[in-house]
């Protein structure tokens, strides 16, 4: 389902005007699309855009543009100021609801892993999955259930249950999640014994080296 999002038609275009717009809490943008007679200059609310980027950066949007009506679009490009990372410009791309598109979707890990309960460490190797589907089939997220994953085991792309109408061309053997063996910590006594053993080994090595030198002479 498309997420409703608001935009205002923008007529300001000079650098000074755009700077003022940003200072007032708006972000300039452009809507592109083959079904549009020409690109449409718009502005969107900075806070609403920031919330969208945090929660649904790859979702289908229903962009309400004064004078152009509601358009099915997706975020295409987001430009940020290098230092502050504030969004300074955004591009929307009108989509054809009857054409398959590619888009990344967030992976969400669920379940209490057997391996983690046994002391293992869960490591995510992939946080998003690139999928192919019709625009209205884009899922908000894809769940990755790790409940049965033990220490030393991997969960692969082929193990994911994709929603109906959704496919991926990513390698089926690509690892998404792995459970690493726990890093054993030595007790104070074990650490001391290890240090003594290392010192004695170093002494033996040094004595052997001195003996070899004397032998060569």
TrEMBL record:
Keyword RNA-binding in record: yes
Domain of life, source organism: Bacteria
SUPFAM superfamilies named among the record's database cross-references: Ribosomal protein L25-like
Pfam family, one: Ribosomal_L25p
GO biological process: translation
Ranges for domain Large ribosomal subunit protein bL25 L25: 7-92
UniProt KW keywords: Ribonucleoprotein, Ribosomal protein, RNA-binding, rRNA-binding
Keyword Ribosomal protein: yes
Self-association state and partner proteins as the record states: Part of the 50S ribosomal subunit; part of the 5S rRNA/L5/L18/L25 subcomplex. Contacts the 5S rRNA. Binds to the 5S rRNA independently of L5 and L18.
Role of this protein: This is one of the proteins that binds to the 5S RNA in the ribosome where it forms part of the central protuberance.
Protein name per the record: Large ribosomal subunit protein bL25
Species the sequence originates in: Paenibacillus albus
């Amino acid at each position: 389902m498309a997420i409703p999002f608001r935009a205002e038609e923008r007529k300001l275009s000079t650098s000074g005007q755009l700077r003022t717009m940003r200072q007032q809490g708006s972000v300039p943008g452009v809507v592109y699309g083959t079904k549009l007679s020409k690109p449409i200059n718009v502005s969107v609310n900075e806070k609403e855009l920031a919330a969208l980027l945090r929660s649904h950066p790859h979702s289908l949007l229903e962009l309400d543009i004064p004078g152009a009506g509601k358009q099915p679009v997706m975020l295409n490009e987001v430009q940020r100021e290098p230092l502050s990372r504030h969004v300074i410009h955004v591009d929307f791309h009108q989509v054809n609801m009857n054409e398959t598109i590619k888009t990344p979707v967030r992976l969400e890990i669920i379940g209490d892993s057997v391996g983690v309960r046994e002391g293992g460490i869960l490591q995510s190797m992939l946080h998003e999955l690139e999928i192919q589907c019709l625009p209205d089939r884009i899922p908000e997220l894809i769940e990755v259930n790790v409940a049965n994953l033990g220490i030393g085991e991997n969960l692969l792309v082929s193990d994911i249950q994709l929603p109906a109408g959704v496919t991926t061309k990513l390698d089926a053997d690509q690892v998404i999640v792995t459970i690493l063996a726990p890093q054993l910590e030595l007790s104070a006594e074990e650490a001391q014994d290890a240090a003594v053993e290392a010192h004695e080994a170093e002494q033996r090595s040094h004595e052997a080296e001195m003996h070899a030198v004397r032998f060569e002479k």
